[in-house]
Fold Putative TrmH family tRNA/rRNA methyltransferase.
Amino acid sequence: MANKPSRSGAVRKTKKGPLKGSGGQGRQALEGKKPTPKAEDRPYHPAGKRKLAKDRYEAASAGANRGRDERAERSPAPRSAPPRARATDRPAGADAPRARRAKQQDESEVVTGRNSVVEALRAKIPATALYIASRIEYDDRVKEVLSLATGRGIPVLEVMRPELDRIAGHDAVHQGLALKVPPYEYADAIELLDKTVSRGQVPLMVALDGITDPRNLGAIIRSVAAFGGHGVIVPQRRSVGLTASAWKTSAGAAARTPVAMASNLTQTLKALKQRGVFVVGLDGGGDMSLHEFTLADRPIVVVVGSEGKGLSRLVTETCDTIVSIPIGASTESLNAGIAASVTLYEIGKLRAAERK
């Protein structure tokens, strides 16, 4: 009887040698993945963003302290002026696309209505012409308008009511008066920085991110003028411009506070950073509280977002640090004008203490 194989059943013949298991995939699965990084080591985690902002802040603080020590070693005289951006040091590639120093693209604005025209002239808003309807009924407001316009040398043009309707817009209630306001001529952010530095001053500016209410812009301009600021930066798109309403809210501060327009706010902020400016964003979930901020002696740009949306993602990533303003639990947030005012006041107070 023939010998049977030791193992019953068919035996598959193969030229391959003996196998050692399932191969690399199974082995990797058994070994498992590496340990999950800590939250602060993940750059896109909120804790990681806070850590990066803290590192930038500490590096800036160390640089400021090192500059003070070097100045103290060079001269026994009192501490020199705080570090600031140099007007002549222009690093290669630091230029961002600038908003040309040109007039606004839209047409001239027309202020209509007796009360609005009176208030605009009282606020000394620039105007190129005053239109008055023929056979208008003269009251105290009309008389004051004529007196203010002639006193400032503004041309007074008497027109028929159909023509005044066309000038003011057929949906506007002009009450026989219309004031033509020319487009505002915006400054350039880099030129504004250079002029401030050339005067021996430490720049302090406010940049707006998504602010569409002209009253907020006017209030911020007024606060910048009140607390020793040097200008305001507004984006060219999705932002309010310096309209007659904003000018009126500024209570005349717009006449002495320059407003710069940025074609790209993020790139403009990056260009300012390369020139030594410290960019501070305001947000409720900030990296630090406002009372913890101590770098007031540096050139600073405070970036304010809208009350609803806050700062945009790209602007947030561009900021050197994000600062929050402590408020009561019963209040959800502050509007842009108030937040900017509180921050400017705090920076002004710190700078005054540094000068003592």
Observations:
- Residues 75-106 have pLDDT under 50 and may be disordered.
- Residues 208 and 304 are 5 Å apart (CA to CA).
- Residues 46-74 form the longest helix (29 residues).
- The chain has eleven helices and eleven strands.
